[in-house]
């Protein structure tokens, strides 16, 4: 029809193709009689037909039908398969171009000119013929899209979807659209709006076919399933334009989620008693099924797991030729297709909930309990409470795949961020106290259910549903519910619900772990057991519920009548056994099974000894994939590693005191793990030791885990020796890291019992382990070695023996060498560890200690004489070099180290040096802004220094620059370090270097206390100034004037209105202000006691403006009220309270200042005969620049 002219012009094209197809379709032969070269005749005929295609649309459609029939007939004749032949690469572009030409006028046609469709499943006149869309989907597998062809096809298909309400055409067009989106995601962004409108129109079309109980035919269900399978990729790629329509999309898909469900009453008649309506239990079927059905893309989808676009294999078959899980019986075919539609719709639900959680949160009644029909509510949520529709699907649907998809959708809905971060309680407690929206039992409330109550009820119903499915006899339901447990436990805000729900989840999951008991090998662990391990691991990671978990897991369960345990242990363990003991017993069983099957791993090549060429942080660490591969080479099974990780979380949740049975089991498990030949399980044992005996617990850890477990010292000593002996045989860096992290806690615990020779026996092995770790190629290993060295300072100083002090000196040399490491993490850890060495030296109790101090008792102390030979000078030089590191973390650690090292170092040795060479170990890194000092270039930085580059001069200049260089954590550390420098007696020496260093440091501290933008930096600067010794040489009039002027400026800042608001980092401004006022009062007393000379003119002006503030602080009054007064106005100065201002109210600690108070005596001349005037930022008469000038 319409293609005759073309065929006459090209008898070898369409005519040859038509004759070939007619001969194949009419022949009675089988595949074996198909002659060789017949397919080549087909491709030649196709090329000829496409070369001169008919210009009329009718001829193009006929050619498309001919090509489609040829592909089907050729496949049937050549191989007996009903799958159509794949197109050659040079043919598929022409087929795609032909389909595009047919679609273009159909897409541009007005929907109003189309004739009325003859019925459901039939194409409208003027639309795209189904055969063209099928052929396009088939060609998209092989065709290469050229120059804008993808974008044009996208727009044509989207327009067709918007204007054609036929389900068959919509499903085929949407399938083609999904394939185009997969192949050309960039084109989607250009036509995103058109595509989103087409997707919304397609979902509306499928919704109309399932509303109001309309009969569903096989064709409708096939087309609906094809459409539903194409949605996920479109949702993913067209997120932004579809987000405003998320609710509309869900409403369109909701009827598909219950189509053919036997528990849905479509007639909406009332259910009286137990009488079921006639149609309950059977899907809606068409009254008369057609004798022939045009199969669409669902044909090759099997039981619903394949892609609809991959199944473009329609062929005219009788009912007896159905396949893909659909049998000869029409009712069976309909039921199977309905199951696939329901599962596909629920999978689309899950993706909608994950992509746009905000669109559905707050609308849970519409999302959960949609009413496409009335659900039979007899089996609801228990105690007469019906389940919402979505939860009822998970429980009542007869198809396992539908229940699984429903659970996935439910978990995706509950995983919304707004649920996890719910800010207020969701339920009232048992006494009816303050809680969320859910009312306590027996309490009266409004007739409606508030949304908080809806959330709480849904969470509890979801838990009850999953717990019920865990008891199911169907293995699929049990596995799906275990997977759902992982998601639900991870997203439920248990702290906002009444306690006990998470404990119930643990109680329901523990019985599944008993599947390990009968096993004699770990080669075939049931999947339910591995899923239960994952779910329990998720539960044990809930740090916010650590107290509840610890109480439940480690407490002895109560016994019920008959000797049964309320803890859910049943006959698997003796009555009254804590859950922790059962889990640890299983861990011991698993470790023994693993030891029987794990061969010794092959050794790996040794790491290079040089660290010079190493890259930055993490460059030498194994990736998870490589580590997993090496563990597999060693034969270690993943299930054993996962369970040991679970046991480690169990240790992390332990209470303060453990039962003796639990302690014994823990020791047995650790012993068994340390005997493992495989490195990964051995590392798990080291991590368990670290959790049991933390050397430096993290501040964020639960309170119960911060205290080391009370393990016997003899066992700790033996475990330490076994760990050190097994370390060289473990090739994995993760094993070395775990061992070095566990070593400090284990050694220190062994030293608590301190039998004679304990420390002496451990020292050489520990030092050897530290040497190996410091030279390892892995960044994490070197970091752990540095941290371990810093945590084990006590090993070298207790007791102080010659051999132990030599070991400590060697360990400190290792740390100094790590200052030059290429990783910022390693440099930071080494600097922190060096600070620990200096702090330990200052507090060491050694008989030969040389105690020194400054006049007035504020000079601090020096290290013991035997420790002065330690390389403090080299450590201080390296730390000063790290103060200019490009990493903020390294600079902060280095500044902390500089403070302790400056306090412990004897600067007197510098006087004998003519010059101070550039310190070795300086990191070649970019110097941050503000730290470009001349002393870093090898020349002296202080004018007037007796010898350029002296260590004390460089120390002063470095710290004064770091005080003014952000970030605040580095400024804070520099201020603290200056305060520690003042504890060293070197600043009391009568030398120009010491005097200029003092002036440099004092100017820096005064500047930050008076003008820093960060309140914590001001506080730390004030605390550092309190360390200023009382020696008269340090309180000369210019320096004392700079001190008191900065004090007055800081008081003016506290009083000024500009300090009432704050930067984002000053959230606790009120508490910071109170702390700063306390420090300023102490500074004022320090000045009054140490400054002997009267203040200068600038300092007197500042004191006259701020003296009354100091007086109020001495009386214990708060300065916050002074900030709300306007003492500067003439009315306030003249009339006092009558002028609208009152003095700050006295605090409970306020009272009269003692008569002999030195500060009150010094302030008296500045308070006599005048009323106070509030100082402002400019009223003190001395700016920061004047402070510097005064100090000079």
TrEMBL record:
SUPFAM superfamilies: ARM repeat (SSF48371). Gene3D superfamilies: Leucine-rich Repeat Variant. Residues 1176-1192 have a biased composition (Polar residues). Residues 1133-1148 have a biased composition (Low complexity). Residues 445-515 form the DUF4042 domain. Residues 295-326, 599-618, 1133-1192 are annotated as: Disordered. InterPro entries: ARM-like, ARM-type_fold, DUF4042, HEAT6. This is DUF4042 domain-containing protein.
